[in-house]
Write a structure and sequence with these properties.
heterodimer; A: mainly alpha; Cytochrome-c3 Hydrogenase, chain B; three-stranded antiparallel β-sheet; globular; B: alpha/beta; Beta Polymerase, domain 2; five-stranded mixed β-sheet; two-stranded parallel ribbon; 3 helices; 7 strands; elongated
Chain lengths: 398, 170
Amino acid sequence: MTTVETALGASKTMVLNMGPQHPSTHGVLRVALELDGETVVKAVPDLGYLHTGIEKSCESKTYSQAITLTDRMDYLNPLGNNLVYCLAVEKLLGLEVPKRAQYIRVMMVELQRISSHLVWLGTHAIDMGAMSVFLYCFREREEILKIFERFAGQRMMTSYIRIGGVALEPPAGWREMVRRFLTMMPNRVDDYETLLTENRIWLSRLQNVGKIKLEDAIAYSMSGPTLRAAGLAHDNRKVFPYSSYEEFDFNIPTRTDSDCYGRYMVRVAEIRESLKIVEQAMAKITDQGPIRTEAPGIVPPEREKMKTEMEALIYHFKIFTEGFSPPPGDAYVAIESPRGELGCYIASDGSPKPLRCHFRAPSFVNLQALPRIIEGQLLADVVACIGTIDIVLGDVDR
Amino acid sequence: MSERGGQNAGVVAEQLRTWNANAVSEVLEFHGETTIVVPRELLRVTAEHCRVHLQFNFLSDATSVDRFPVEPRFELNYHLVSIPNKTKIRLRTRVSGADPVVDSLVPVWPGAGWLEREIFDLMGIRFNGHPDLRRILLPDDWEGYPLRKDYPTEGFRDIPATFLPGFKKQ
């Protein structure tokens, strides 16, 4: 247990233990709160309850095996985790991914962003006492998960993005499915906004709560919607484009109020922007074309080739037994996950297993600023602040 | 793929050299990423210079690598982003296994706080001047540093009897 030093002495304040089994911490986060009446004087987050040592496990797996572990970090953004890991390995190997696969990746991670924001919106609304929004959000999220299931055979732990491309050809009828979602979704976002944006309870719970100054947000390395709600249009998709994001036309929503309400508005606007990106990606994905790059010994050969060509069979065997060895060196890739900058640092020593694999988890870094945000706030607002930072404990603890 | 090499990442090394010739002991380029190797003693002043004069206002990530049994075994990597210039660089410093201590960068970027705690927790590198250097992911009474290469993936736990030679199923 973490010991907490009190700031004002034991007679004046009281230490309240929030979590780790508190529903509004969205997982197992413990915050030791020192209270003066109802005001938070000091807050000490205590993490690690979900620590699974994924970074250590990666070191004893081959490069392709570790993809399945990345799914399990930020469980609301498995495709994004796959993507950042694969981009880092591809950078080490110097692999170029075919355009068609890049567009499929973009479409999938943007759908993932929508689904992640929907979970955030639903659970945050429940924290604030609005039950119905949760049900609506999960109804729409279900549609996205159905799309993932058709693409990858899995609803959540998709492992769909692989080194050199994607795992499978898009399924028959995927266009109609995504199209149906795209026509339905804008009205549904309007519905959420009707329920919340002008809602007086929502406004009084969120406005002017949990403010952080832009300088502080940058100094604390905050990223994602929290940083953009503070007024800085910093988004890795625009600033350091990856996976052909430079070819897409979308805006970076920002606010200047930097409170919980601003973060809500940014996320809702991001859902709409992501819909635009999915629409464009769908138009760019051709019906025919490669979904994986040609890289013998790194990317598994096609099933048909394995039956007719001996080399293909040998490569297949080698990839799944000893793996492949990138040249010694290191690579750091950062993408924009729904929560902020998701980075992957891989160091290779020329062996088939990574020497070091580190994930820069946006939830972990953003959570760091929590004491700064909630000190001086009321106890009830702590829930709103934790909620709008949008942490996923699987991502915090890894 | 030259996201890092892009605008003026290469120039940064030159600017650092003009400021203090000792600050840059090596410049590495790999897949468009610029790594500036800094002597351990000069890490904090170099980082301060990067933030104040070269506009690297955002600390994106801090991480470490264990190259055991090579000495100096530890490598610390700080990934810096300049939001105004849209540039990325990596500051690297090497630390020996016998004396794994560096100056903390929390005074330069407060965001380094938890990232350095994570390194301390999992790799056992200590940071001078860190305001709150405690374990962060593991319990306070954990022994050892799991991300070190001489720490087994399974940990140091007891081996279950079923795995021991001579064990017979009842």
